[in-house]
Amino acid sequence: GENVEQHPSTLSVQEGDSAVIKCTYSDSASNYFPWYKQELGKGPQLIIDIRSNVGEKKDQRIAVTLNKTAKHFSLHITETQPEDSAVYFCAASMNFGNEKLTFGTGTRLTIIP
Amino acid sequence: KAGVTQTPRYLIKTRGQQVTLSCSPISGHRSVSWYQQTPGQGLQFLFEYFSETQRNKGNFPGRFSGRQFSNSRSEMNVSTLELGDSALYLCASSQRGGNTEAFFGQGTRLTVV
After folding, report:
1. Residues of chain A found within 8 Å of residue B56, distances taken between Cβ atoms
2. What values do phi and psi take at B49, rounded to 5?
């Protein structure tokens, strides 16, 4: 089955700096890659996603890149703010009888004021 | 538009008992997936329902079961509870499952004592 690896497990950055989280996946049939942000006591919140026919997607301070050949995708957060502190999860899924999300192990991001 | 609603938010059960958790998806969403989140194993897929049919099942024992009703609401049941079943159980809804956007509820925190 699909396996998603995520790095780093913890990340601390100064407020205003950029943060990058990286994930790799194993199954070339995966075609959808969402990122979730989870705050304490809450469920994961979808923050951005990318499909396999796109190489990059941006939404304000958040961007995601996908390299299908290397089977890796990354989350980039620019101009970080204290409210960006949370646990971030990457995930991968495919269609056609395997409709489930396989998650990475999460990255705890701490923004230092 | 109301989000995904999970009830109850917290549960304390005794080993050997059974429990039923409920999930009301976003209006119009026909796919409901269940995930177990623990510190040690992360987010793991339990099962996915679409139009009252289970389409996918994760690697969990038969004590874990679920169902979906005609209004897309879903329930999951865990019988003969074990201490290791203590976890945050999350429900996610999407329009069609697969590579469509999935939105999570706040989760049900189950503690088995």
Report:
1. 97-100
2. -120, 145
A99 and B58 within 8 Å at the Cβ level: the answer is no
Q: How far apart are CA B36 and CA B92, in angstroms?
A: 11
A41-92 pLDDT per residue, tens: 999 999 999 998 889 999 999 999 999 999 999 999 999 999 999 999 999 9
What is the distance between the alpha carbons of residues B102 and B53, in angstroms, rounded to a whole number? 18
Alpha-carbon dihedral of residues A6, A11, A17, A21, nearest 10 degrees?
0
How far apart are the two ends of chain B, measured CA to CA in Å? 37
Q: pLDDT tens across A12-28, in order?
A: 999 999 999 999 999 99
Which stretches within A10-79 are classed as H helix?
A: none
